[in-house]
Design brief:
Helix content of chain A: 10-25%
Shape of chain B: globular
Largest sheet of chain B: 8 strands, antiparallel
Number of domains of chain A: 1
CATH topology of chain A: Immunoglobulin-like
CATH architecture of chain A: Sandwich
Number of strands of chain B: 22
Oligomer: heterodimer
Number of helices of chain B: 18
Order of helices and strands of chain A: EEEEHEEEEEEEEEEEEEEH
Radius of gyration of chain A: 22 Å
Number of helices of chain A: 2
Largest sheet of chain A: 7 strands, mixed
Chain lengths: 219, 711
């Protein structure tokens, strides 16, 4: 896990690709990932139409996790799908968090991927719940690894909070008309206290101030 | 016929439903009265309803019919859009699947389908009305929705009341019959409900011919039943449903009445061999060396070679396990089931005692380590394959359920038959009228083949494969069609017969204890609680439509298991309050009453008996004069002996047509008669003879009445 872009005070993180390797974006922007080649998409879709195939459960998770931030930071995490062997037509998610430590300032479903329905859900910072984020694709073929949404947070206080994912009962993960088994991997955010200024920095600041005052007095 | 009615009908056959302005309430201005509109909020003049669920395509993006439009439906829509072009996905009924349909899908996403006025009514499903009179007419010209016929019916029954709309399933489609004067109904409030229907005239003719053939030469007396009781014996006289039209009255213009197939209010004669079609116990089948496995070769048929044969105990167990292809999973599954007897458990608050003697029947098994269980030599032999299509309910008003197919195994103790049966009770998977009719035809077709012949075995296996194979019922736990697994034994203690029930638990995916149905805990027999239940539910009990609840009077009631003896009955002390003053109309009953209405003592006896008969223990003991098992597991080397309740008199391996008389074990002096295989056969004939095209045609609706509970 490493910082990719820092636009103080917002902290954004690199997103791991397949195999856990960081995917740095030279342009500094997120881009849809996990969209396979046209041939692969076509073959996958044809096989999906032909009938059921052995299914490997994919995972939905926050990236990065655990995330380490400082109290007062504004930061973003990506909600992604990984390792889906089948086509994913969409689904819905909710997640909980410790409202004393975090608040969610925004959810943005990836509309490039989810062209049929992209609902950012309902944020309740009082109870610590973002409910019913919905995402569905019609023309886009979604499989393997894919983005779901970007979630923006503000760290309020030091501590560790779990981002507890739960699947929607209204809109289950599904593909080709069948429910898909999904492994929901809870995220975690570790919020450190804002550090006190370092002693050398304080000394330099003091000396500089003293020198400045001396110059003004001399003048 | 009044002029307005003539105009109505003329308009109908001319291709436009004409609604008298004074009657019409048409919020979506599609020309269809809201009262019969299958999509009331959005205009859909054609009323197209491809899947026949009563919700027009325009309002029905719920392609998997689970009540909500979501990702699952999106996947089916994509399959239709890019692949098979399922017409149900043509929401706007313009003949093509395009982005307009995508937009409609999006507008209905994450919502329930509808609204519709043509929804099935649970009240009618629970209390189906009788059809007193009925006519069917063929339209000269198709109606806008493509219907080619009209149905006119006069109903009766408590649930009908003053309903202006009656919805029902006709030819696997939901249709609305109205008495509002909306075409083709001629006169509002005249008691005749009318609606447009799609008729398969060829199938109607075939049903007529089928029933005629089935009844040829059957002028003998036919046993008539009320639930499981024989109530009379009548000559079979097929008839026709009375017409709704008075003499001299004409049907509407533009349509022609057709003759309906036979209707009979009596039970059909059983013209097939019950040993081949209903209760199959012959060793040429249940000990077939290719299909079954018996580690002891009890019937000397050589069925000792393949523990993985299709009907072996191991295979049936494996197929309902979480992963039939993984031997370790299968071994764990069978071990976990057997281990239920090793500890006392609690079901519905009642203890289900341990019976650790079970360990002794499985040499080498330590009860702890699944690998010590020899699953290739499980000491069970198949003793019967049972057709229970009579347990299904095919109602034109909805809530249809399919019957069951059962496998009865007997326990072996050191290769000797032992008093324990294990019954795999699978739910037949197709509850539709057409599905049940086809399955009944297949069962009856077994009669044409010789027992044990390759053709017979092949046909029977095809029938059982639909419920026994892995993933036979994808929507149920482990994909298994199993409804429940039941045991009845004294082998494990030697002191008291004991009945238990298991179901596949959705969480653990294992067989776990469930309550025994319709049977309170044994300690509640003869108590004020059960007295109260019988008295306050007397009418429902008399009609055998009662349900014994999990709890009653704020305490657990339904039993976790039931231990019983040969004299077991459910008792009822003298009632503290009042009995029904007369028998309810749904009761057909016992001919030995002294008069009508029965005396209070006879009434009490009848309520007590019917409650008791529906319990597990009394049905297997005194109420039916049965010695614990209806299919005897201890008959060595020969077909299992069957109870008199099943086969009539005398009890034994051969079904007959003679009633089996049982004196009231509570000493009322009343006598009841049974021959349940004859009843099941009559219902099987009725299911096979129904047309499915018009409500109530054939005797099915009356014959397959109200066995509302699993027996």
């Amino acid at each position: 896990m490493r910082k990719l872009i820092t636009r103080n005070p917002v902290v954004q993180y690199a997103v791991s690709g397949p195999g856990g390797q960081p995917q740095a974006d030279p342009a500094g922007n997120r881009r849809p990932r996990g969209v396979p080649s046209a041939l692969a998409v076509g073959l996958t879709f044809v096989f999906a139409l032909l009938g059921p195939v052995p299914v490997q459960a994919g995972s939905v998770l926050f990236q990065p996790t655990p995330a380490s931030v400082q109290a007062g930071d504004l930061f973003s995490l990506d909600l992604v799908g990984q390792g889906f062997s089948e086509i994913v037509d969409g689904g819905g998610l909710s997640f909980s968090f410790d409202a004393a430590l975090l608040q969610v300032t925004g959810v943005t479903v990836d509309t490039t991927t989810w062209d049929f329905l992209a609902d950012n859900g309902t944020i309740d910072n009082a109870t610590g719940l973002v409910s019913e984020i919905q995402f569905n694709a019609f023309l886009t073929t979604v499989t393997n690894d894919f983005p779901i949404a970007t979630v923006d947070f503000e760290a309020l206080a030091p501590g560790v909070t779990t981002l507890g994912l739960s699947a929607s009962t209204l809109n289950p993960f599904a593909g080709n008309g069948e429910a898909i088994t999904v492994s929901l991997v809870d995220g975690s955010v570790d919020i450190a206290a804002t550090p006190a200024p370092a002693v050398p920095l304080l000394l330099l600041t003091g000396l500089a101030s003293a020198a400045h005052l001396r110059r003004r007095t001399a003048a | 016929m009044s002029r307005i009615i003539r105009d109505l009908c003329t308009g109908l056959v001319a291709g436009a439903l004409v609604i008298p302005p004074a009657l019409a309430v048409d919020a979506d201005t599609d020309g269809v009265d809201d009262a019969i509109d299958n999509c009331t909020a959005v205009s859909n003049p054609a009323q197209r309803d491809t899947d026949g669920d009563g919700i027009g395509n325009r309002c029905d993006q719920d392609l998997n019919d689970d009540g909500l439009v979501n990702s699952l439906d999106l996947g089916l829509f994509k399959r239709a859009f890019f692949g098979d072009h399922d017409p149900a996905a043509d929401f706007n009924s313009d003949g093509v699947l395009d982005m307009a349909d995508v937009a409609i899908l999006r507008s209905g996403f994450l919502r329930e389908p509808g609204p519709t006025a043509v929804a099935l009514d649970p009240a009618l499903a629970a209390d189906p009305p009788e059809v007193q009179a009925m006519d069917v007419a063929v339209l000269d010209t198709l109606a806008p929705g493509g219907e080619n016929g009209a149905l006119f019916a006069r109903f009766s029954g408590d649930a009908v009341g003053d309903r202006e709309i009656i919805t029902l399933i006709q030819n696997d489609r939901v249709v609305a019959l109205n008495d509002l004067g909306i075409a083709p109904d001629q006169q509002a409030g005249d008691g005749i409900h009318s609606g447009l229907v799609s008729l398969d005239l060829d199938a109607l003719s075939a049903a007529e011919a089928d029933l005629s053939n089935r009844l040829q030469g059957t002028d003998a007396q036919v046993l008539q039943f009320s639930n499981r009781h024989i109530v009379s014996e009548l000559p079979f006289q097929p008839g026709r449903r009375p017409s709704v039209f008075e003499p001299g009255q004409e049907p509407p213009d533009g349509m022609s009445l057709i003759q309906l197939p036979f209707l009979t209010s009596s039970h059909l004669p059983v013209t097939f061999d019950k040993s081949k079609t209903l209760m199959i116990t012959h060793a040429d089948v249940v000990a077939d060396p290719d299909l079954t496995y018996d580690p002891c070769n009890t019937n000397s048929t050589g069925n000792t070679t393949d523990p993985d044969a299709p009907w072996s105990f191991k295979t049936l167990m494996a197929n309902m396990s979480p992963n039939p292809s993984d031997p370790a999973v299968v071994q764990d599954f069978i071990h976990n089931w057997l281990a239920n007897w090793l500890t006392t458990q609690t079901v519905n608050g009642f203890p289900v005692p341990d019976r650790p003697t079970i360990l002794g029947f499985f040499p080498g098994w330590d009860g702890v380590d699944p690998t010590t269980l020899d699953v290739d030599n499980l000491p069970f032999r198949l003793i019967a394959i049972v057709n229970r299509m009579d347990l299904g309910k095919s109602s034109p008003y909805g809530a249809s359920t399919a019957g069951e197919t059962r496998f009865v195994f007997g326990l072996l103790n050191a290769c000797s038959p032992s008093p324990m049966t294990v019954i795999f009770e699978y739910g037949d998977v197709d509850a539709s009228c057409a599905g049940q009719k086809a399955r009944a035809d297949d069962w009856i077709a077994l009669d044409a083949e010789a027992l044990g012949s390759p053709a017979y075995l092949s046909a029977l296996k095809a029938l059982t494969d639909t419920v026994t194979l892995p993933n036979a019922a994808p929507g149920k736990v482990n994909g298994s069609a199993l409804n429940q697994l039941r045991t009845n034994e004294v082998a494990l203690t030697g002191t008291g017969w004991d009945m238990r029930e298991f179901v596949l638990d959705g969480g653990t995916q294992q067989l776990q204890y469930a309550t025994v149905k319709q049977t309170p805990d044994a300690n509640l027999n003869g108590t004020a609680v059960t007295d109260d239940f019988m008295e306050s539910h007397a009418n429902a009990i008399l009609c055998e439509k009662h349900t014994v609840p999990l709890s009653y009077l704020s305490a657990a009631y339904l039993g976790g298991s039931i231990e019983y003896g040969i004299s077991s009955i459910w008792d009822w002390a003298l009632p503290s309050g009042s009995l029904p003053g007369s028998l309810p109309s749904c009761h057909q009953g016992n001919a030995s009453f002294s008069g009508s209405p029965p005396t209070p003592a006879e009434m009490q006896s009848e309520v007590r008996h019917k409650f008791s008969l529906n319990t597990c223990d009394a049905c297997h003991a005194a109420e039916t004069a049965t010695g614990f098992t209806h299919v005897d597991p201890t008959t060595p080397t020969a077909p299992a002996n069957l109870s008199g309740f099943l086969v009539g008199s005398p009890p034994g391996p051969i079904p007959n047509t003679t009633p089996f008389s049982v004196n009231d074990p509570a000493g009322s002096g009343l006598t009841r008669e049974f021959n349940d295989l004859e009843r099941r056969g009559s219902i099987l004939a009725s299911i096979a003879s129904q047309s499915c095209l018009v409500v109530g045609v054939g005797s099915f609706a009356t014959a397959q009445s109200a066995l509302t509970i699993v027996h």
